[in-house]
Amino acid sequence: MNKFTTRVSSIFSFASSAFMVMILVLAILTRNYQDVPDVKLSVQDVSLSKSGIPDYYDSSSKNAQHARVKFSISADMTHLFNWNTKQLFCYLLIEYENSDDTRKKTFDNKVILWDRIITSPKKAKINLKKHFNKYSFRDYNLNFINARDAKLTLVIERVPVLGFFTNKSERSVDISFPSE
């Protein structure tokens, strides 16, 4: 009972428990998310075409209609960095509804068009003018004829060193797909 190893074990056990409680308290205290005050998001053009990047694993992508979105973003996120911020993950999410005429069903779609990982406050200013989507954008119905209620949203997700992930939709813009 009074051995040296028993005393070391109990000291280590107490120190580990105190350290875990301290980490939990710090994770809860730094969970707050601040808004990004001056975010400007605009869509200049949405164009549809039959030519796009064909998908090697999906033979129907050759006949699919591909959408190309031209957008501009301006945001300063330097104040989101503190001692507990590891990185910021920013992405443009487009949400729209599309109905399938053959099954008489409506689908709620969410597609990421563009993203960026920001690892330091020096790179935390985004200023993109007339930029196009980074990833291929097509619907599995092969066209955007029945697409409606489209909304483009800038989402910023804060990845902490310690604690919980927080994400926030900063700015949304309604867009419409052109008719053929």
Secondary structure topology:
Layout: H1 4-29, E1 40-49, E2 66-76, E3 85-100, E4 105-118, E5 125-132, E6 148-160, E7 166-175
What does this molecule look like?
The chain has 180 residues and is mostly beta strands. The chain folds into two domains: 1-30; 34-176, Sandwich (Immunoglobulin-like). It contains one helix and seven strands; from the N terminus they run H-E-E-E-E-E-E-E. The strands form two sheets. Strands 4-3-6-7 form a four-stranded antiparallel sheet, with no helix packed on it.
List keywords for this structure.
180 residues, Immunoglobulin-like, 2 domains, 3-stranded antiparallel β-sheet, 1 helix, 7 strands
In short:
The chain has 180 residues and is mainly β. The mean pLDDT is 80. The protein has one helix spanning 4-29, and strands at residues 40-49, 66-76, 85-100, 105-118, 125-132, 148-160, 166-175.
